[in-house]
Amino acid sequence: MNKTVNQKAWFFVIPVFVLVAFNAIIPLMTVVNYAFQETFGNNVFMWEGTRWFKQIMLSERFHASLGRQFLFTFIILFIQIPLGIGIALTMPKEGIGVPVCLVLMSMPLLIPWNVVGAMWNIFALPDIGFLGHSLNALGFDYNFTQQIGDAWFTTILMDVWHWTSLVVLLSYAGLRSIQPAYYQAAEIDGASRWAIFTKIELPKMKKVLTIAILLRFMDSFMIYTEPFVLTGGGPGNATAFLSIDLVKMALGQFDLGPAAAMSLIYFFIVLLVCWVFYTLMMRNEEKS
Amino acid sequence: MMMFNILNAATWGDMAKKKEKGFFDFEFITWMAWTWQTAAFFIFIALCLTAMVIWEKKSPGGSPRKGILGLDTTRGDRLFISLLGSAFIHLFWLALVGSVLWIATIICIGYAVVVFKYV
Fold first, then answer.
1. What is the dihedral of CA A36, A39, A41, A43, to 10 degrees?
2. Which of A67, A148, A162, B95 has its CA 20 to 30 A from that of A44?
3. What number is the average pLDDT over the span A182-202?
4. How many other C-beta atoms can be found within 10 angstroms of the C-beta atom of residue A17?
5. Which stretches of chain B drop beneath a pLDDT of 70?
6. Is B32 in contact with A41 (Cβ distance < 8 A)?
7. pLDDT, tens digit, for every residue of A86-116?
């Protein structure tokens, strides 16, 4: 079959290419350049070779913040994904309840990150905040600005509040796309609710769940604003996740070289984990 | 020593002038801090991509197959696995051995060949 060859459409790609060049490629190249040099500002750079990469790879501070980052990400995935599916399953399928639930669910997603952080900061303040004051009144010794466990608890609760809706909305979309015939067949077979969930709903939701897990993984792995506003990485370094630590290094200490090296390592880890996730899930997709 | 010479410059404004002309010394782009080493790295990446395009022209389809890891990969996937793997090999070499980095580079070339042949 002879297809007409017309390459003019490539010109339509140019605006996107320019945009990506300016917001991704040029900054990334600059980060690579900085990672091999030392600077005291004023565009004076001194070649350092691979020194910063070695320093970061052996740095206990980096290991600690990487560990905290993975712990945080796994905790919130572990909570948000099952919780999101659960809420999606209990949401109404028709009637006035549908738009009401959808709007209520979307609300947290529409609030800017720094506002979420500020809201939760005030909400959780031990002396005047509703959450903090109530917990203390109930007899819990709660103070997220001083106790590590409380800081983690508040950060995780905030992230669950902010982002579970995303999982809910995606799962709900997946659930709604299942043909009624599947449910009728299950009813005829006398399948239990659990069997319907594991044999019909979960496999049918696999694609949206893949996207939900990937999105939630990446967003939480790169989380910055909310914990920055809520705890500022404290108490001590207890909630200084990778990006908070990175910004401290780059802007607080003005160690641009090590910070650039760290951000590249960070980037490679994100690439690797996303690739592994994606490959595993696509492989299961083919099997089933 | 050179570092202190630069710091002895009278003002911060003089510092940039004291620096000798480098490989890529256009005023508007000095903030990007290009060096020939990093430029060579990006040229290498660009060449890789160009080579992949030419290869694809020669034998279209990306030669998909199921490799030893049980993954369905095309040529592009194999390039990605090779490059990302090489980054990690270099990083771990730096962390665990620390010097003679070119040995890591040789390992990476071997790794890339294995990936392109079997994965």
1. -50
2. B95
3. 89
4. 11
5. 1-26
6. no
7. 999 999 888 898 999 999 999 999 999 999 9
The SS3 assignment for A45 reads strand
Cβ within 8 Å of residue A45, ≥6 positions away = A33, A34, A37, A38, A39, B33, B35
| Chain B residue with the nearest C-alpha to that of A257 | B33
* Residue corresponding to tokens 């069997």: A195
The total of structural domains in chain B comes to: 1
Query: Distance (Å, rounded) from C-alpha A33 to C-alpha A108?
Result: 39
pLDDT above 70 (res A255): yes
Considering only residues A208 and B8, tell me which one the structure prediction assigns the higher pLDDT.
Answer: A208
Query: Of the candidates B16, B71, B98, which has its C-beta nearest A44's C-beta?
Result: B16
Residue B91 lies in a domain: yes
Residue B81 belongs to a domain: yes
Tell which CATH classification among 1.20.1560.10, 1.10.3720.10, 3.40.50.11290, 1.10.600.10 matches the domain A60-287: 1.10.3720.10
Q: Which phi and psi (to 5°) does residue B43 adopt?
A: -65, -40
Q: Measure the CA dihedral A204/A207/A210/A215, to 10°.
A: -120
Axis-axis angle for helices A51-58, B75-96 (nearest 10): 80
Token readout for A238 is 């207890």
**Per the CB < 8 Å rule, is B30 touching A268?**
no
Q: Which of A167-176, A249-258, A273-282 has the lowest mean pLDDT?
A: A273-282
Partners of B42 on chain A (C-beta within 8 Å) are 29, 32
Structural domain contains residue B39? no
pTM of the shown model:
0.82
Q: What is the rounded CA–CA span in Å between residue A242 and residue A54?
A: 17
Alpha helices in chain A (DSSP H): 14-20, 26-35, 51-58, 60-90, 97-110, 113-124, 130-137, 148-176, 180-189, 193-196, 202-204, 206-221, 225-230, 242-247, 256-287
Whether B10 is covered by a domain: the verdict is no
Q: Decide if B63 contacts B73 (C-beta within 8 A).
A: no
Note down the domain range covering B100: 73-119
CA distance A57 to B95: 6
Mean of pLDDT over chain A? 89
By C-alpha distance, the chain A residue nearest B100 is A50
ipTM value for the complex = 0.80
Q: What residue has token string 């040029």?
A: A26
